[in-house]
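Thread title: Can someone regenerate the structure for this chain?

I was given the following input by a collaborator and told the matching structure tokens would be attached. They weren't. Posting the sequence so someone can regenerate them.
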Amino acid sequence: MPSPGFFQRLRDLEIHISKDLELLNEFEEALRYETNPRVKAGYRQEIQRQYDSLARYKQEYAELEQGLSNVPNAQMRKVENQLQHMDAKLNVLLNGQVVIYENQNQMRQALLNRYDAIERAIISAITQQLDQTQLILLQNLIDALEKNLISEQEIQQMLVALEKRIPALPVSNLAVTEIIKNPELDAKHKLKITLPIVPMLVEYEGELEFGTGLNIKSAWEQLIAKLRRN
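Best answer:
Regenerated them for you:
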């Protein structure tokens, strides 16, 4: 059984992370329109300090996790997802990728422009469900694929994993599943069209962690490994 005060500590942790995520969102909005280099540098210093907070939150979470003795708990899962979102958000802000786009609609359009008209019709609804962090992750995954940083074997592994896991999503997409099975498309093309589902899987599974370097190939390999275990 959890120790006395366990759920209060967990609730306090959830509140603190929520406040920091709100602060990061404010920084994100400010950086999007700020042009003064000195002011931008100041924001980046404040964002960098948030890594210290994230480290403390992770330590607190680890201690609480031990006290729970592997008992399933929805609130623990929520806090875990918060930590992962905060980690990804910090990576995005410090990598300076956010300021490329004025808003999420432009980000979605930039993503859709990488596909032809038929493909856009298939993935448009999926991209509407993705937030800013997920859209950037998707852009990076496509970059990795187009730069041939992923082997043919890894591509095939990902396609097999996606075909298996897509039906488990809260909202599965039949058209995407049919693309994977289409014998007329090569594996790389199939994967590019189905990649928009990956950020949703990352969010839904809730176990992937992205380090401060936002190593896309590492994230890719982790995702393949995780999907194959299920």
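Residues 97-101, 207-215 have pLDDT under 50 and may be disordered.
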